[in-house]
Design goal:
It is built from 1 helix and 3 strands, in the order αβββ. The protein is α+β, with helices and mostly antiparallel strands and 110 residues long. The longest helix has 33 residues.
């Protein structure tokens, strides 16, 4: 029962992180539309007008602490938590984790 429960918790964290990723991407699109076709320089620039706070990336099953701040503008193995934001040029955001999710996809590819 314990391994099954742990797997359900992992799936729940992944679902929460995917949902939070969707929220961030939606807020970026709204920001882009409301700011003459420019993205924010950082995710924090959307606070408080477009989002109350940056939601956390919950990927604790992979020994990453729960973190809400962005960590880098590119994938960086030394930064193992949080969001990666490409910045105001591209406006892309993803999870900074190269582990496989429960469906066998690399988390940073979500």
């Amino acid at each position: 029962a314990i391994p099954r429960f742990a797997d359900l918790m992992r799936k729940a964290r992944e679902g929460s992180t995917k949902g939070n990723l969707g929220v961030l991407r939606s807020c970026l699109k709204i920001y882009y539309a409301g700011n003459d076709g420019t993205f924010p320089e950082t995710l924090a620039d959307m606070i408080p007008k477009y989002i109350e706070e940056i939601p956390p990336a919950r990927i604790g099953a992979y020994n990453h602490p729960e973190r809400s701040g962005e960590t880098a503008i590119t994938n960086d193995a030394s930064l193992t938590d949080g969001w990666v934001y490409s910045g105001f040029i591209l406006g892309n955001v993803w999870v900074n984790c190269t582990h496989m999710d429960t469906m066998g996809k690399i988390i940073s590819s979500w």
